[in-house]
Amino acid sequence: MNLVRGTVALVGGGMTAQVLSALAGLLIARLLGPAEYGVYATAFALPSALMHAFLFGLDSIVPREIARKSHDSGKIIASSLIPATFWSLALSLLIVGLGFLLGYPRRIVMLLLLTAPAMGARSLTNLMRSVFRGFERMEADAFIQIANGVGILAIVGLALTLSRSVHAAVVATLLAEWITLAGAVAAVWRLTGFQCDYNAGMASALIAGAVPLGITFAIVGVGLRLDMLVLSLLSSSQEVGLYSAAFGCMILSRPLSLLPSALLPRLSKLAGSADEEFASLCEKGLRYTLFAGCAIGLVTSMSAPFLLNALYGPTFREAAPALRWLGITALLLFVNTYLWHVLIAWNSQKWIALSVLAGTVTALVFSLALIPYLGIIGAALAAVAREGCQLAMLSRYVAKKVRLVGVRNTIVSTLWAGLTFGASLWVVRDRTDAGVLLIIPFAFILFLAMLVVTGGIEASDLRTVRDGLPRWIRAPFSRRERKICG
Asked: What is the dihedral angle through the alpha carbons of 364, 366, 372, 377, rounded to the nearest 10 degrees?
């Protein structure tokens, strides 16, 4: 599949799924209120923090192995799915026990019996999605994401119509995750011609290669949700509900950071064999990631009151100061995710582990120091500190592996474009009306124009995007080029 089309499909599907998930969260929040929504968020906080541990890194290893050994795809799939399934069941029980040891109330511990298996099912679905990415079938990955979002929204909506309770919402989420998993497994089996042969030796090799990533991603997950975990232990369910709404708005941008996932198969093929081509692709991916991260981070920060009011209702607007800080987190998270995939392509997962560990320790220190005094704002500042620490370390590691000659120009261009974009959005910083939606596109045009003026976007980038568009869209541009040249 064309790289641009694949990326558009993957990002579009992810964005659609996130919107559907946000709608489900909006429905739960509006019907239950901040306090009960905080209970719902607390019940998912611990399983969500450990979600990456369910797969111990297999969802990053599997696409790489399939891209390199597509003829053994059946063995790769079976040899990763079976061990992951057994481990998911065991980890679900461990999460319930951990919740009890942390001192969660009995109500939360009982809910963990449902939320932990739900996260386990979602992780296995993510493993199936990674298979499609290995085959560069990004549209299938997008379809699964959208189907999951539709299922959660529909089933949760039906459950809350029958019973407006946290328990009903949790049970509905679990059911939707199981249905999505069954469909994803069936789709993968059909893709491989129902030839999924388990191989113990291959399973051991996959797990051995994935365990460093698994430890890393487990730390990533804990670090990413550490602010929420500490908040749930030190603050009221009302504050947990408010911060969960702010975090939910920020995480809407997460699918855009899937650009590195689309590049991973090609980066893996080029790593160690075509250094110049690898560096060129790596630098291009970094440019796209910086531009997208800067734009989405500024929109999140500047339109925080509007996003919270539109998605969760007026009772959640108190979370706007926290969401402004989380907008910075969104930008940093974009870049860090990209740098992870560059290092994965080079098989240098240990550097990711070290940076994530440092970021998690930083988040823990900031959370314990700030949350008791600043509440949800302290939690947001801890998230910024975590991602900033990781970025500093990851940048240093990547610079040792790849020579990126145009990074300084890219950063300068992004800074100028970001300042222009932020100044254009300043007028919407306190607004909650629909007029915000009219201003953002004009501000974004100025952002793109500044990128062109400062050399951030080159003619080759525009041609790449044009070539990836559907034929009926790019046809007028092609005719115009022929007229000019002829």
From this structure: -120
DSSP-assigned states of every residue in 123-187: HHHHHHHHHHHHTT-HHHHHHHHHHHHHHHHHHHHHHHHH--SHHHHHHHHHHHHHHHHHHHHHH
DSSP 8-state symbol, 262: H
Question: Residue 4 has which token pair?
Answer: 């641009």
Count CB neighbours of 403 within 10 A: 12
Tell me: the pLDDT tens digits for 189-212?
887 766 667 777 777 888 887 777
CA distance 60 to 214: 9
d(CA 171, CA 279): 47
Residues in the chain: 486
Helix axes 58-68, 73-101, angle to 10 degrees: 170
- Cα–Cα distance for residue pair 38/32, rounded to 1 Å: 9
Predicted TM-score (pTM) of this structure: 0.74
Q: For residue 421, is pLDDT > 80? A: yes
> In the chain, helix, strand, coil percent, each to 5?
90, 0, 10
Structural domain boundaries of the chain? 3-474
The first and second tokens of residue 467, run together, are 């070539």
What are the backbone dihedrals phi and psi of residue 457, each rounded to the nearest 5 degrees, phi first?
A: -105, 125
Cα dihedral 273→274→280→285 (10° resolution): -30
Q: What is the pLDDT of residues 373-394, one digit of tens each?
A: 999 999 999 999 999 999 999 9
Cα(150)–Cα(165) distance, rounded to whole angstroms?
21
